[in-house]
UniProtKB/TrEMBL annotation:
Pfam families: Zn_peptidase (PF04228). Keywords: Cell projection, Cilium, Flagellum, Membrane, Transmembrane, Transmembrane helix. It is a single-pass membrane protein. This is Flagellar biosynthesis protein FlgM. The chain crosses the membrane at residues 43-61. It is found in: Membrane. Residues 19-29 have a biased composition (Gly residues). InterPro entries: Uncharacterised_pept_Zn_put (IPR007343). Its main location: membrane. Residues 1-29 are annotated as: Disordered. Signal peptide: none annotated.
Length: 312
């Protein structure tokens, strides 16, 4: 990925020099509301497809030059989220200082800027304003508006404060423990969490959080998969437009697809415990994660990312 020398986002906070990790975002309480890249999860129940239909309809009508507010009767929804509990083990956690502008921060800031460019363009083309998320770098542990979390849980998005949280040591773990190396594999991780932010802005996560309260664990896990696979598809949409800029190199797409493959629920469970428990899946199998990322990457259309009205 030809990222060097490109614009860097101003929406990156670096809390890695804090002892034992950062405490950005404020707020106490449990970890509810976090959306993670690896595994874990709770979800919400039937009826979320209505929100997705409205989101797809909104964008479709805007492209046709029709005011969707007249058709949908006004309204809209933003903010808040759901619950995912991570299960990845990690050897870090003591916190470490890092240069104020090391290469990893430059890379993360550049990738975040690329997501800003894409999503600002998509939202603006449809008469909407994109609220850019903040990405907070931490080391070891962090307290967000969604609660206290260690780096063992992996990168996550907190709807409560509109922040993506990332311990960059995860990238080393992704490469060494899961065999998913490469800068575009790392970019996919960031783009997936930004995908959750898009879901938050379009009202999908608030509805998700509301509905999960009354669901069985099995139903909750299934809908969690739908939410996570849509975030993978949204990451693919971002990759589609990033590729059009000519900054992807040979092998970059394969890096992202390999990362999606390696963090599928079935692959992770086989690696960590030697067997799989399909009813516990809540992010999607390797095949599903690869397929939905490829779907978004191939078309660049949000309407192709409807995981709620199509078989996943």
């Amino acid at each position: 990925m030809l990222w060097r020398g490109r614009r860097q986002s101003d929406n990156v906070e670096d809390d890695r020099s804090s002892t034992g990790g950062g405490f950005g975002g404020g707020g106490l309480g449990g970890p509810g509301g976090q959306f993670r890249i690896p595994i874990g999860g709770r979800a919400g129940g039937g009826g979320l497809s209505t929100i997705v239909i409205l989101v797809v309809l909104y964008f479709g009508l805007k492209f046709l030059g029709i005011d969707p507010m007249q058709v949908l009767g006004g309204g809209g929804g933003l903010l808040d989220g759901t619950d995912n509990s991570g299960q990845i083990t990690d050897n870090s956690g003591q916190g470490s200082s890092a240069p104020a502008n090391d290469e990893m921060k430059q890379f993360v800031s550049t990738v975040l800027a690329e997501t800003e460019d894409v999503w600002n363009g998509i939202f603006q083309a449809n008469g909407m304003k994109y609220e850019e998320p903040t990405l907070l770098l931490f080391s070891g542990q962090v307290r967000s508006a969604c609660g206290f979390t260690t780096s063992a849980a992996g990168p996550f998005y907190c709807p409560g404060d509109h922040k993506v949280y990332l311990d960059t040591d995860f990238f080393q773990q992704l490469s060494q423990q899961f065999g998913a190396s490469g800068d575009f594999a790392e970019a996919y991780v960031i783009a997936h969490e930004v995908g959750h932010h898009v879901q938050n802005l379009t009202g999908i996560l608030p509805k998700f959080n509301q509905m999960r309260q009354s669901m069985s664990e099995a139903d909750a896990n299934h809908m969690s998969m739908q939410v996570e696979l849509q975030a993978d598809c949204f990451a693919g949409v971002w990759g589609h437009f990033t590729a059009q800029k000519g900054i992807l190199e040979k092998g970059d797409l394969e890096e992202a697809l390999n990362a999606a493959q390696q963090i599928g629920d079935d692959t992770l469970q086989k690696k960590m415990q030697g067997y799989v428990v399909p009813e516990s899946f809540n992010h999607g199998t390797s095949e599903q994660r690869v397929r939905w990322f490829k779907r978004g990457f191939s078309s660049g259309k949000l309407s192709d990312c409807d995981t709620f009205n199509n078989p996943i």
